[in-house]
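TA notes, week 10

Several of you asked for a full example with nothing omitted. So below is the full record: structure tokens for the whole chain, then the designed sequence directly under it. When grading your own attempts, check the secondary structure regions first.
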């Protein structure tokens, strides 16, 4: 096992559940289910397919004779026909009706849609659980004042919980996109070699209605509401683009979250989980690097760049089909899903174990608060009889002086002392310090958190409560 390339997505990042969805076993068992659905449909629409043949196909739906298929493919160089042959070896009575009227894309493309739908379902479940954990975090820290940042410069304060709602809102947008794409997925159906259903029209002796019904019946047997009404040999490869765009959107949101956590960890205000025996650096034993957040960012970059693959494939398909999509699809679609699966496991793990340091947050907050409180101080001085324009100029000059003391001399922020010493303000140091209550400066942030959770998030979680309760398992 150590002498061949192994995808790190399988070895290090993706869950066993997602790996199985894209496994050969899942694919080939789905092929057999589609062949059974085709045979049942053809029987129900009057073709000479017997129940005995269908029962034989069902009896061997799961026990795939892989070695026979592999040996056959070495001979004929065609994966679908190799599996038709292998299935026929197990089902001699049904051998003649397997794949009747169909082309390779009947099993290949329909299976791709089925697998992407199932994989989107797993992504959705994990996304909902990340949202639930973020909601708990936002509620817990909705009233914890903290410096907000614009341009990574201290700005008007917010709360830790309010900042978490910004991460959460982006996941809401991702969920909307996911639900739209998942709800719009359709099967290819039984369209034939160029999408005209010519072979099925021949089988059904010119009965157009039976050709239409065959598509609908196959879709329903496979758990879909309908098939795409028109196609070439394949479903439009634009469908793959839409799916991967959803994955890239989730990756984008996760990347933003991971960036913020890494910056907060630098400030020592919030840290991702760090296990007892975890090593942060091979050289610097004291370090607690934000390795999981960095991994989220790294995998997210991969997924966001993966968007170009299905776009290139879709835009360069010739007429009813070319096969230059095949090798690309085998890589870009599964690996996009496996990477997002790993991202969401990491996201859930990080949120579930976030450590907040209120004392550090308060220290940073109080160091900047005098600057932010100047407007309130100025208004208090005006109420006491001061001139607003004169006080504005004085406070501007005193702020610059306090800033120089901090930046050039390394001193504490002494703006309050400078204002107290200026008789124009008529305020004592004690009166000024009374203005330094952090909760006075966070606006509606705590209430915004409550409203957002109550009006937006709680309905989503309540609607999806049967999906909750996941715990993230990460491998490294």
């Amino acid at each position: 096992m150590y002498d061949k390339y192994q995808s790190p997505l399988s070895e290090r990042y993706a869950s066993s559940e997602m790996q199985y969805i894209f496994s050969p076993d899942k694919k080939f068992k789905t092929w057999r289910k589609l062949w059974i659905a085709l045979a049942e449909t053809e029987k129900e629409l009057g073709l000479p397919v017997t129940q005995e043949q269908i029962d034989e196909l069902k009896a061997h739906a799961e026990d795939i004779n892989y070695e026979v298929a592999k040996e056959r493919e070495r001979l004929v160089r065609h994966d679908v026909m190799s599996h038709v042959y292998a299935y026929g070896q197990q089902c001699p009575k049904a051998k003649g009706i397997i794949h009747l009227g169909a082309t390779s894309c009947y099993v290949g493309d329909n299976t791709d849609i089925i697998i992407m739908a199932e994989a989107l379902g797993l992504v959705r479940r994990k996304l909902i659980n990340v949202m639930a954990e973020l909601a708990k975090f936002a509620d817990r820290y909705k009233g914890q004042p903290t410096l907000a940042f614009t341009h990574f410069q201290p700005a008007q304060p917010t709360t830790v919980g309010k900042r978490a709602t910004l991460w959460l809102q982006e996941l809401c947008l991702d969920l909307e996109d996911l639900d739209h794409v998942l709800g719009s997925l359709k099967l290819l159906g039984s369209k034939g070699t160029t999408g005209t259903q010519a072979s099925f029209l021949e089988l059904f002796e010119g009965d157009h209605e039976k050709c239409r019904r065959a598509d609908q019946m196959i879709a329903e047997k496979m758990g879909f509401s309908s098939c795409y009404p028109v196609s070439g040999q394949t479903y439009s490869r634009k469908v793959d683009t839409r799916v991967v765009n959803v994955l890239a959107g989730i990756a984008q949101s996760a990347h933003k979250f991971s960036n913020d956590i890494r910056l907060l960890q630098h400030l020592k205000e919030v840290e991702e989980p760090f296990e007892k025996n975890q090593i942060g650096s091979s050289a610097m034993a004291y370090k607690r690097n934000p390795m999981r957040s960095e991994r989220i960012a790294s995998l997210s970059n991969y997924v966001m760049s993966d968007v170009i693959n299905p776009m290139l494939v879709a835009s360069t398909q010739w007429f009813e089909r070319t096969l230059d999509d095949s090798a690309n699809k085998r890589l870009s679609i599964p690996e996009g899903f496996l990477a997002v699966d790993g991202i969401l496991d990491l996201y859930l793990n990080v949120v579930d174990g976030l450590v907040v340091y209120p004392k550090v947050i308060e220290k940073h907050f109080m160091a900047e608060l005098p600057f932010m409180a100047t407007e309130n101080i100025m208004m208090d001085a005006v109420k006491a009889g001061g001139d607003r324009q004169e006080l504005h100029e004085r406070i501007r000059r005193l702020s610059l002086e306090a800033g120089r003391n901090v930046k050039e001399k390394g001193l504490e922020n002494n703006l309050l002392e400078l204002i107290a010493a200026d008789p124009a303000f008529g305020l004592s140091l004690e009166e000024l310090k009374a203005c330094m209550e952090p909760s006075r400066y966070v606006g509606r942030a705590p209430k915004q958190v409550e409203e957002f959770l109550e009006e937006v998030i709680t309905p989503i979680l309540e609607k999806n409560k049967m999906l909750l309760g996941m715990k993230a398992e990460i491998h490294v």
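The first strand starts at residue 145 and ends at 150. Use that as a sanity check on your answer.
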